[in-house]
């Protein structure tokens, strides 16, 4: 198993364990402490558990070798897992909003002061987890791991909002019992925004969006530096999980033998693999060079 995938799976496993523990703590504290916001926070954390499990499964599937059924491998499992996490966030936001509105219109007791201690603990743990998991996601360039990290931050946001709401309801006293529910409603909107933020790039990757410009530039430079390459064109690069597939046309001397053209295409592939570690495969189309100069034309797909 590749090291980047291994790191991503470990971060998902850590998130799964932490979320399981925190969900139980928040649910018990919310019920005992009469806090609708804390109970809603526990619901959001339960979505975090499923989120980490989805990321874990997606990353494991993405490491499978290509076979006859999936000749380009299983890399798309990674953005698919990312999209599922985004949808889970949207679902959690909807559920929290519905429950918050129900609590607002339903008279209930003022939350117990001890719930504030629980929320402080949750915010600290989840924000720390967000920073660590997001760092791993950025290091291995995994959208699924970064999405899982944002799920942790969303949990920290809902907990912070609940802390503010409960503090207001305790401070103001009778008549302000719904303050924590209004806080939960605000938090649901923030979670929904994060869900959309995660979902959009995942859908783009599933539609074979081209990777970042610096990746394209490194591939272009590597191919054009190979002796014998006169020009490249129609460069197309698509993501497949944490890796990319490259398709390009290479123009060379029209008098070159078929054997030499084959050797040149192999040299181009080797140069691209050496220049960009994320490349999973390279398809080179050899063409006769009929122009002047050594300009590079790249069509980004």
Word description of this protein:
- With 301 residues, the chain is mostly helical.
- The chain folds into two domains: 3-206, Up-down Bundle (Alpha-lytic protease prodomain-like), CATH 1.20.1510; 213-288, Cation efflux protein, cytoplasmic domain (Alpha-Beta Plaits, 2-Layer Sandwich).
- 66% of the residues lie in helices and 10% in strands.
- It has helices at residues 3-32, 36-62, 77-104, 114-140, 143-172, 179-206, 213-224, 258-275; strands at residues 231-240, 243-252, 279-288.
- A hairpin with a 2-residue loop joins strand 1 and strand 2.
- The longest helix is centred in the first third of the chain and has 30 residues, at 3-32.
- The protein is elongated, with a radius of gyration of 25 Å.
- The two termini are 29 Å apart.
Topology of helices and strands:
Elements: H1 3-32, H2 36-62, H3 77-104, H4 114-140, H5 143-172, H6 179-206, H7 213-224, E1 231-240, E2 243-252, H8 258-275, E3 279-288
Helix pairs in contact: 1-2, 1-4, 2-3, 2-5, 2-6, 3-5, 3-6, 4-5, 5-6, 7-8
Count of beta strands? 3
- Largest sheet composition: 3 strands, mixed
Return the string of H and E elements.
HHHHHHHEEHE
Spatial strand sequence of the major β-sheet:
1-2-3
Structural category is mainly alpha
Work out the radius of gyration: 25 Å
Task: Give helix % range.
Answer: 55-70%
Q: In DSSP terms, counting alpha (H) and pi (I) runs of 4 or more, how many helices? A: 8
- Architecture of the largest domain in CATH? Up-down Bundle
Q: What fraction of residues sit in β-strands? A: 5-15%
Shape: elongated
Instruction: Determine and state the CATH class of the largest domain.
Output: Mainly Alpha
Residue ranges: pLDDT <50 for 5 or more in a row? 293-301
CATH superfamily of the largest domain, by name, is: Cation efflux protein transmembrane domain
Quote the CATH topology of the largest domain: Alpha-lytic protease prodomain-like
Overall average pLDDT:
80
In total, the number of domains comes to: 2
């Amino acid at each position: 198993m590749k090291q980047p995938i291994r790191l991503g799976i470990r971060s998902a496993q850590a998130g799964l364990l932490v979320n399981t523990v925190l969900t139980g703590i928040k649910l018990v504290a919310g019920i005992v402490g009469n806090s609708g916001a804390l109970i809603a926070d526990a619901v959001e954390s339960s979505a975090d558990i499923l989120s980490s499990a989805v990321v874990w499964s997606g990353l494991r599937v993405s490491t499978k070798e290509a076979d006859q059924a999936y000749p380009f491998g299983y890399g798309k499992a990674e953005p698919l897992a990312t999209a599922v996490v985004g949808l889970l966030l949207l679902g959690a936001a909807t559920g929290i909003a519905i429950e918050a509105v129900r609590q607002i219109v339903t008279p209930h007791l003022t939350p117990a002061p001890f719930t504030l201690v629980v929320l402080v603990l949750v915010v600290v743990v989840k924000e720390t987890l967000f920073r660590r998991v997001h760092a791993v996601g950025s290091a291995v360039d995994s959208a699924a791991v970064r999405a899982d990290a944002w799920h942790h931050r969303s949990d920290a946001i809902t907990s912070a909002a609940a802390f503010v709401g409960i503090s207001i309801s305790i401070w103001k006293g009778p008549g302000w019992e719904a303050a924590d529910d209004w806080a939960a409603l605000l938090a649901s909107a923030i979670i929904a925004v994060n869900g959309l933020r995660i979902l959009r790039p995942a859908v783009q990757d599933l539609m074979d969006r081209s990777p970042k410009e610096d990746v394209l530039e490194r591939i272009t430079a590597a191919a054009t530096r190979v002796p014998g390459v006169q020009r490249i064109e129609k460069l197309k690069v698509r993501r497949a999980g944490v890796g990319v597939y490259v398709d390009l046309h290479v123009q060379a001397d029209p008098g070159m033998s078929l054997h030499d053209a084959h050797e040149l295409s192999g040299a181009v592939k080797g140069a691209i693999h050496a220049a960009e570690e994320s490349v999973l495969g390279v398809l080179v189309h050899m063409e006769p060079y009929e122009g002047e100069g050594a300009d590079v034309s790249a069509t980004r797909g």
